[in-house]
# Entry
Amino acid sequence: MSAICGKLGELWLMGGTPTTITKEACENVSGYTYHITAPAKRYLDPATAVLVYDNNVLQTSGYVIAGGCQIQFDADPTGPVTVSGKYLPTGSETTFVQNWQLTLDQGGIFETTSLGATARSYVNCGLVGWSGSFERFYEDATWEARLVAGTNLLIKLYEDEPSDRVWTGYIYLTDWTQTVSVDALQKETLSFQGSAIPAYAADES
# Structure
């Protein structure tokens, strides 16, 4: 695979009025991972409880919602898989973005050795957290207002739009910085902390 040109990246914010779905059909992505079959209904509202059904039986464990758009089961479901809740019907590209950064944290090495015992440590015990930031030309007060509001947002970080390699996930904005230079356009930098776990798709379709 060749290197990916940075200028093909994009940052999208999902929004619109959340719309109710009831036992919406899902399809298998790969392995034990599913998503809603209809692409327009795939991105789930973070403020609404998601109900997952396997063969019409409500599941209370054995899965996680990743990136606001994937249902990742611990084992192969019987099927069919359906979902109830609300989806976000629209998304829009965030303009004037110059770069974005994403960091995945697997927790490193956990040391468990106690005095007089054999040395033991555990490596990469699972995804502990994720965070990131992006920089854009300053336009208005929209993004700092979102920071002050403290709402849970759903973003999509494209590596190479329109080829659709994308990271998706719920975030909280944690920091906002404005830069005003006498010889350049004003800029703003926003940092965020991931909520739940993100999802990666090599193809959104």
Observations:
- DSSP finds one helix and 16 strands in the chain.
